[in-house]
TrEMBL record:
InterPro entries: Cro/C1-type_HTH, Lambda_DNA-bd_dom_sf. This is HTH cro/C1-type domain-containing protein. Residues 83-126 form the HTH cro/C1-type domain. Transmembrane segments: none annotated. It comes from the Bacteria.
């Protein structure tokens, strides 16, 4: 089997029992209690979808799309006030985005995402002794 080379856009939504995910353009859906389990279930479902086409799918092919509120509910280790300070955004404004009271513009969304990615990169490079 050939490895699929494209990214698959997946919409993730919080549910009462965990999370649901769907790749709408492919008509592939799944659910799970946690994000890591959702990744596994989604990879399995997509492999079944692509099996007849001769492709294999890995988690590298997934592009998960969460809204800010879901992101901060799941990744509680990242504090919105801390992030606002790091990206030079008013903490109250970011808090309103996180609570769903306001919707960020595409430019603000990109600023937030890049800030989250920078923090993630910094954390991944930490060595503890």
């Amino acid at each position: 089997m050939k490895k699929l080379k494209r990214k698959i856009d997946v919409t993730v939504e919080k549910t009462d029992s965990g999370f649901s995910a769907y790749a709408g353009d492919l008509n592939v859906f799944t659910t799970a209690r946690t994000i890591p389990a959702l990744h596994r279930n989604l990879t399995e479902a997509l492999n079944l979808y692509y099996e007849d086409r001769g492709y294999s799918v890995s988690s590298d092919n997934l592009k998960l799309n969460l809204d800010l509120q879901q992101f901060f509910q799941y990744y509680k280790v990242l504090n919105a006030s801390f992030l606002a300070e790091r990206i030079g955004m008013n903490p109250t404004l970011l808090s309103q985005y996180v609570r769903g009271k306001k919707t960020p513009s595409p430019k603000q969304t990109l600023k937030i995402v890049k800030g989250i990615q920078r923090v993630g990169k910094e954390l991944s490079e930490i060595q503890l002794s």
